[in-house]
Each structure stands twice: as C-alpha cells, then as structure tokens.
Design brief:
The protein is about 35% helix and about 20% strand. The chain has about 550 residues and is an alpha+beta fold. Bound molecules: the ligand Nc1nc2c(c(=O)[nH]1)N[C@H]1C(S)=C(S)[C@@H](COP(=O)(O)O)O[C@H]1N2 and molybdenum atom.
Amino acid sequence: MAAPRGAEPARSRGRLGQPFGRGLAGLLGGAAGVAVAQLVAAATRPQAGPLVAVGSAVVDAAPTPLKEFAVRTFGTYDKPVLLGGIGLLLAAFAVLTGLLAARRPIVGVAGAVLFGLVGAVAALTRPAAGPADLLPSATGAMVAAIVLHQLPRRAVGAVRSGPPPFGAGADRTTEGASGPGGAEPVSPPAPDVAAPEPEPGGAGSTRRNFVRAATVVAGGTVLTGAAGYLLTQIRNRDAARSRQTVRLPAAARPAGPLPAGVQPGFHTPNAEFYRVDTALTVPRLEVDDWRLRIRGRVDRPVELRFTDLLRRELVERDITLNCVSGEVGGPYVGTARWLGVLLAPLLREAGIQAGADQVVARSVEGMTIGTPVETVLDGRDAMLAVGMNGEPLPHDHGFPVRMLTPGLYGYAGACKWLTELELSTFDDFDAYWVRRGWAARAPVKTASRIDRPAPFARLSAGPVRVAGVAWAQRRGIRAVEVQVDDGRWQPASLAPVPSADTWVQWRYEWRASTGAHILRVRAVDGRGEVQTGQRATPFPSGATGWHTVSVTVG
Ligand SMILES: Nc1nc2c(c(=O)[nH]1)N[C@H]1C(S)=C(S)[C@@H](COP(=O)(O)O)O[C@H]1N2
Ligand SMILES: [Mo]
C-alpha cells in the first residue's frame, strides 16, 4: 500500500502542508456551522444559539465553588472567558474532525452531528426553551456536515507543487512512516476512499481546487457571520428603541426629595449599578411583546401587559439592593430610586389561595426566584419595578419589568426580565439558587463598608475623614462605629435616610497619627443588634464580618 501512495508526488512532499490543510478544513467546517447557527439564533431566539446555550448549561451545571472561583478570578469577564473557552474547545474539536475526515468523510458528518446534538440538547433543555430552539443547532450542524464531508478530503494532496512548506522531509514517502524507522504500520491504513485521484493538472490543480473550495467556505462563513452580527445589532436597536419610547407616568406616590444632609452618591447611577445574573446574553425585550402571567395557587389567574401595569398606581421608593455573593467590603450593593407597582394588592386581586407560601418569579431566560408570600404581604414595598433613577429599567437591570423585595438579597426577591409569578409553596418548588444549596429564605444581614480611605492608602498625619455606607434593609441602621487599631469603638456620624430600606452614609473624623493603622467598621441595626465580627463566606446565606482597611500615615 505504501508504494502507490508514495508515488503521488504531492503527498510525498507536503507532510506538514497536508495536516495543515485538513485542520484548516475542519476549522472552516466548524466556523461555518457556528456562523449559520448564530445567524438562525439571531433571527429566532439569541438564547438558543449553541455557544450561548452550551455556555448557559455549563453555568447552571458548574458547582458553586467553581462558579465562585470564576467570578473571583475573572470578575465581570467571567462570561467572555467562558464563551471564549467554549469557542476554543469547539475549534480544537473541529480541527481534529478535519484531520480525521480527510480519510473518512463520514467522520466529518459524525463530528457535525455530535456538534449539533450537544448544541441542540443544551438549547432544548434550557428552562425557557421551546421546540423552535432546535433550529440554530440543526441548521448549523447540517452546514457543518456538508463542509466537513467535502472539504477535508480535498485537502489530501492539496499541497504546493513546488518545494514543500517548511522544508518538511521530502524523502519521507508514506503516511505509514509513523513507527520507528518508518516501518509499515501494523494494521493496514484505511482504504483510501477519500483521496481524490491525482487530477490531470497534477498537484497544483488539486491544491487550487482545495484553495478555491476553502475560500468559498471561508467567504460564506464571514458573510453569514456578518449577517448574524447585523441582525443582532438590528434587534438590539429595536429593543433600545422600544425602551426609548417608554413614557413612564409620574408616580401617584412619589418619593419626594432626599432629606437634607444626604451626601452625593446616595443614589447609584444606573451605569454604575452592579450587575449580577446568569444571563450570557442580556435579554433585550420589547414592551409590546411583554406579558406577565400570575398563576398557580390563585383564584383568578391574570395576564398583564406593560400598559396594564402602567395604568395601576405607581409608587416611587429609594431601595438598596445587594447580592448575597458580595464579600465583606465588596461592591455588589447599590441604591436606586425605583418606580413600580406594589405587588401585594396585585396578588390579592388574583386571590392567593390558602397554603401558598412562596411566590416563584420566572424570567424570560428561565431564572427562578422564590420569595416568601408573607414577605410580600407584610407591608414592605415589594414591587414590580419599571423605572430606575428616573428612566425605564436598563436592559441589564431587567427591562421592562423586574421584581424588588426590600430586605431580601437579590437572588431571593429581585427577578429581572420578569414574565411569570407563580404562587406555590417552599415544599413544592426549589428556586434556581436554592437547588444549588443557597438559603431558601434570605433576609439581608447587617453590613457596613469603608469607602475611604482606600485600602493601603498613604495619608498625612492630622485630620482624616473616614467614610462609607452601612445597610440593614427593613431594620435600618441605628449606629455605625469605627475602631482604629485595637482602640475603643467610636461612634460615626450618620447622614439622614429616606427609609429603613436604604443604606446609610456615615463618616468619622479621625486624627491620624504617624504609622501603620488598621481601620474597622461595624454597624448596629434598628433593633439594636450589633453587626457580628464573625467571618462567614457568602455561601449559603450572605457574608458576615467587619470590613477592615489598612493605611499608612507618614
Ligand atoms: N432573571 C434574572 N434575575 C436576577 C438574577 C438572574 O441571574 N437572572 N440574579 C439575581 C441576583 S443574584 C441579584 S443580586 C440581582 C442583581 O440585580 P442587578 O443586576 O440589577 O443589580 O438580580 C437578581 N435577579
Ligand atoms: Mo445576587
């Protein structure tokens, strides 16, 4: 077998050129498949694209410690890193498929089918999936199958007719020269079904053939990718327009001006408000398509449109929202002026049935967030928010409607991109994060943070203003105390607040003396309970401990 194959001059020369061509052919097949799938996803549902679907499945399946590691290591880049990683894996898989498909084109088809299956299973098993979510992966796999069937085999023999690339051993004649000394392989190589006969024009024309086919595929892929990108831009622009056309009515019960003495920075600007969610692509919804169903253990299921919501009495409230995964002293907390519809009257109209103790909020992309019914009904301003700091909700923060429950961490009361409220029970249903071990009931813990001086700041001796925020939504903050090194806890002065549901700004005038110092803060909540200094990790119900900052006064 070695002799005839070795007799093909083209193959006797390009030992590096061939694998390169086949690998490239595989890569092109994979890229073409992904591009087509992304285009179809852009036209149907972006969340159903194989990259995003597989990425979301990975996010959901990843054990909590791994997720925490990812967030710790990559911060807000965790999502691009994940998608990039999946892309790299896919590329490696495509190259491998190309290498194998050169001899056995059926392997190319099998590789494409496998690619399509993984994407389709991921898309179809997403919580909010429908049968149409099969389309992106299916069409992508079909295109990849055709390319992976046709292109890699054309790379066989498709090497330069001139000197071999990279001066690769021109005298090594056979593919079988893999064992020591170039012995014949023990098992005969596969029948050479795929390798085309040397064409009349010789290796040069074979190569031209391959290059032509590869160029067509590459060009088609770039065009398809561009079309997908454009379509995404258009849809995003439509969503942005939908948001811009929203005219929020004035609140029937406005929040009024902030009390005199509140310092700048009390409201967190929308663009700076922390964002925490599992969405790999931000759902960009349009108000006209939006519906909210209230169902489950209710006497009268309801379906509301956005305009129905705006016709109800709107309230405006300053509320601090924070994330259970925030570390002591961390950034996952913000305060906004929210405009929305109180949830309690809405649920009462639907008729909450006896025994229902959990409101399960669902979002368009399948998040579930469970909130105790008693919490919604106990008089706090649990609401369906439509406005944030005087604007419609930004897309990142749940446009057009999100839930907010003062006093609960976000994962237990603040569902974004809301589309359904199901009255249920804690026995019957575990929400997304509860299934992953986080506490089912999650009142915020008393916390305080030093915002200045910054950690490791170098200060000059004399008066230094130490300042920050403290929060214990619903209970409020009665006092904040600062400790320098191991000295006595000193009372900080507090700015006024609009309600117990917001953070409190505090400051302490420190007479700094030369040397290295440690500053500590703790708060006392409205019930007189002192914030614990006991360190606890965010998992499973929120971090505790005193925020500490080291500074040098010189
Ligand atoms: N649909 C959806 N809503 C969600 C989440 C999510 O992942 N998906 N994350 C929750 C969590 S953990 C928090 S802390 C808040 C954060 O809200 P923000 O991003 O507007 O600050 O949203 C909550 N609502
Ligand atoms: Mo969160």
